[in-house]
Structure prediction request, 363 residues.
Amino acid sequence: MKRRHFVGGLAAAAGIAACGGQSDGSDTSAAGSAQRFDWSMVTSWPPGLPGLGAGATRFAERITRASGGRLNVRVYAAGELVPAFEVFDAVSRGTVEMGHGAAYYHKGKVDAAQFFTSIPFGLNAQEMNGWLYYGGGLELWRELYDPFSLVPFPAGNTGVQMGGWFNREINSPEDLKGLKMRIPGLGGEVLRRAGGTPVTLPGSEIFTSLQTGVIDATEWVGPYNDVAFGLPKAARYYYYPGWQEPGPTLEAIVNKDAWNALPDDLKAIVEIAAQSVNSDMLAEFVHGNTTALMQLKDDPNVEVRAFPADVVELLEGYAEEVIAELVAADPAAAKIHASYAAYRDAAREWQRVSEEAYLGSRG
Ligand code: CA
Prediction:
């Protein structure tokens, strides 16, 4: 893998990611600088996955390099030490010091964590960063994970995803009825209410299931990852936008005891590396998606299409229902949602007169 230059300009900005983890005061000075730490980082990503897995690897490399090897982080792909969906438990127990994955994988364990990745019709990548770093989101995230002895950090974002690959046209809400689609989480529940059948499949089975007609559609990430996955060979219609995941944040989690054992300078290096990979991954996705979409536009077997307005409107209505039920069932979700929803309402006004207006005006 290509080493990227260290994004030093982010160092100053990273200071605002004030950490919930409290130092125990035992070793916070340069006097502890001789002490070495060997950490393992387990991830939810298959080996060599572009974007997500590459981001986790760069994160570990940056910590190791910036610390001169005093904090040496070794990365493990999903299944090497623990399975993809057991990262949270392994770091919480202290089996390993660190993990990289996505907070919405902890649905069922910590339902409210879904707000810290993405929810249907929620915040986009820019807004997630604004909310997390400056709008109180990160404090709420740290409070939610504290009982699990975890300190979370935003550590990557895919940007807005695509709606997915479909083997049938979606011309009206009627076309969602009976649609078998791989779409996890809250988005899947929204599809169910619209008459579809959400299916959960591991990444390894998506291509064959779509190609053989076991499913009619799938969402995955965006052109960059979807082309690498071969999905244009399995379906014709590529719909946008990705209403189900408008700007998912990836997470790094550190075991609280491991965090508290670090001297302040190594804590700063972890914070700065996390913030650098948070912005760097988004840059990689913008670039990778731009390049891959051009390739798809030239592919005679692929049609890139917008979902009809009445379909999007219907899905948004069901999304409000699904989120209202989550909030009603879980006080932690209610507290986080109050902050998230207020931020989204305010951000909408700014986006209308800035990004939305600007992109609409550009030829
Ligand atoms: Ca997705």
About this structure: The radius of gyration is 21 Å.
